[in-house]
Amino acid sequence: MKRVDLFSIALRQALLSALVMILAMIGVGAATLATVDHALRHQLVQTIDTDIAGLTDVMVQGGPDELRRRIADRTDFAEGATPHPFYALIGPDGTRLAGNAAIAPPANAGLSPLIELPDGLARATRLRGGLTLVVGRSLAPSQSLLAGLRRSFMLAALLAVLASLLAGALSAGWLGRRVTAVTDAFERFKRGDHRRPMPATGRDEIAILAREVDAHLLWSERLLRSQREISDNIAHELRTPLVHLDTRLLRALETNRDENVAADLADARGDIRSVVSLFDALLDIGMTETGNGLGRGAVDCDLAEIAINVADLYRPSAEEAGLDFSTRIAATVPMRGEPMAIARIIANLLDNALKYAPAGSHVCLAVEEGPRIVVEDDGPGVPPEDHDRIFGRFHRAGAAGPGHGLGLALVRVIAARHGLTARFENADPGARFIIEPPQCD
Amino acid sequence: MQVLLIEDDPQTADAIAAMLAREAIAVEWVAEGEAGVARAGDPANDIIVLDWMLPSISGVEVVSRLRAAGVEKPVLMLSALGRAEHRVEGLDRGADDYLTKPFEPAELIARLRALVRRTSVQTRQPVLIHGDLELHVRARTAHRAGRHLALSPKEFELLKYLMENAGEIVTREMLLQHVWKLNFDPQTNVVDVNLVRLRRKLEDGCDKPCLETVRGRGYRLNAPRADGP
């Protein structure tokens, strides 16, 4: 099961929706606050205007003294009232004659302007006798109402963001698990664990994808199995008559007294063996190419140990052929693979070197961490036109020696099965065959 | 020695029976897996030769059943399936050896004898003695007529296997399988060259050859006697 990281689709989606949520809350909050603010002011201005109109009437009907009394009456009750009212009656010389607020009369009081104060709204008006009347209301209640609203919006926005993040994280996990189930099915298929259906209930896109993947893997598996069966059947049906033919030749060989005939019969048996071994190698290559990854034969093994063993087998032959054979093998190179198949890689590469390097050449087998296998000689090398097809089937350079021309093709497919690449390099002079993990760059 | 042969193709079965008869090995032939499982327990049969592809139950299945039933007799699988994958599977399922068709009669005989011998105690002895050859398994030293032989580790293993099968033919494939633990045929004659080297060391200073090349079949370690071959 893979970890769901920050870049998972679902998590990105959740972060995006949280961001959209924040922006939406800011927009709605700002609009609401502006509307409420506007309504409250409008209401306050109306209250102030009604009050100032009443006081103006008092002035008209009762004169300045009556006005002062009325203002005093109102200021007496101002303490308990909300919004807190304030008044000022200012004489022509600028002294306050009545009221509870110290406000300088505006120069344009004749126009009855609205005055914005830090904590209130007021209107001034010019009366008879050079008097200026200022009537106002505190803004504190509306300000605290707006502040409360703002707090509520921020809290709601915070909750919405948290909720959308939580929902996002949950759905990221859920989505991640379902997508991982699909990728795991592919991984299992690659490892050769072919059939384990996915729990694909539901009708959403991922369920459809999972069912499609399942159907496809089942189909691939059937294809692989039927190919294996067909090639096994061909192998069996082809071999049986060859076995009979071989038995007849053997019987003839036993009763025959003529040396020339005996030689021909022995050659014919040799031919049967060549056909069979060629067929085995071809089937091996074919099955390895279609098979995905390592099969049941894979174990943890030490490449160094395998290499030493194969080198021991080939050293006498190399020395008899007049080659200077050396090895450069790391102390231990642990890897996962099929030991017999890995041994075959090294054996085929050494077979190849023995076949083409003339007496007196150096041949070196190097094995190191990676895992990396290099077989190098300073023989005649490989002509450039053959570089591309050297790992192909039935490729044989020049005058072919023994073998069926599939040795290097087998090297390539076995390497591929172990997730390694096989490549050829000119060693100037000579040939260098390298088996190693694919280079990233 | 008696062999239980489980093989569905009568022609192949006849040929194998004829090969074994020539070596004075008795054969009981059954053509089918179920019958084979039933007959495998009979103490008269020392070893089982089993075809992979049988009509009702496969050879692999037969081995599994035999091992599950506690039959520990050696089993040699014969198969027309020669891919490396099959060899591994056959041996994994409990077969002791695996031989692909077509095979040399000598290869079959040699392998059968080696399998039967392997189950006997003789091969676990700490000192192997054959003629004037002496091999100390634990000390990993070998002597011929009292003279120390300077063998490489692989040459020691090679000589040990030949001595365990002294007097019998061992094939190249058997040597590859037991000494190098490899089950594929190298494209060059690497095994022979190893044998040539071992022979040189064995026979250096002695005029009596003891490691015989059996043409087209393999090698045989013969007892070098005082009165000569």
Question: Features of this protein?
Answer:
A: 441 residues, alpha+beta, Heat Shock Protein 90, 5-stranded mixed β-sheet, 7 helices, 12 strands, 57% helix, rod-shaped, B: 229 residues, Rossmann fold, Arc Repressor Mutant, subunit A, 5-stranded parallel β-sheet, 4-stranded antiparallel β-sheet, elongated
Q: How would you sum up this structure, described in words?
A:
The complex is a heterodimer of chains A (441) and B (229). With 441 residues, chain A is of the alpha+beta class. Chain A has three domains: 9-143, Beta-Lactamase (2-Layer Sandwich); 205-290; 299-436, Histidine kinase-like ATPase, C-terminal domain (Heat Shock Protein 90), CATH 3.30.565.10. Chain A is 57% helix and 15% strand. Chain A has helices spanning 9-78, 140-190, 205-255, 259-290, 303-320, 339-356, 407-417, and strands at residues 85-90, 96-99, 114-117, 120-126, 132-138, 299-302, 324-329, 334-337, 362-368, 372-377, 421-426, 431-436. Chain A has a five-stranded antiparallel beta sheet with strand order 2-1-5-4-3. A five-stranded mixed beta sheet of chain A has the order 7-9-10-12-11. In chain A, strands 6-8 form a two-stranded antiparallel sheet. Chain A starts with 8 loop residues before the first helix and ends in a 5-residue tail after the last strand. Chain B is built from eight helices and twelve strands. Chain B has helices at 10-22, 33-40, 59-68, 84-92, 105-119, 153-164, 172-179, 190-203, and strands at 2-6, 26-30, 47-51, 75-79, 97-100, 127-130, 133-136, 141-144, 147-149, 169-170, 211-214, 218-221. Chain B has two domains: 2-119, Rossmann fold (3-Layer(aba) Sandwich), CATH 3.40.50; 122-221, Arc Repressor Mutant, subunit A, CATH 1.10.10. Chain B is elongated. In chain B, helix 3 (59-68) links the parallel strand 3 and strand 4 (75-79). The longest helix of chain B is centred in the middle third of the chain and has 15 residues, at 105-119. Chain B is of the alpha/beta class and 229 residues long. At the A-B interface, helix 3, helix 4, helix 5 and helix 6 of A face helix 1, helix 4 and helix 8 of B.
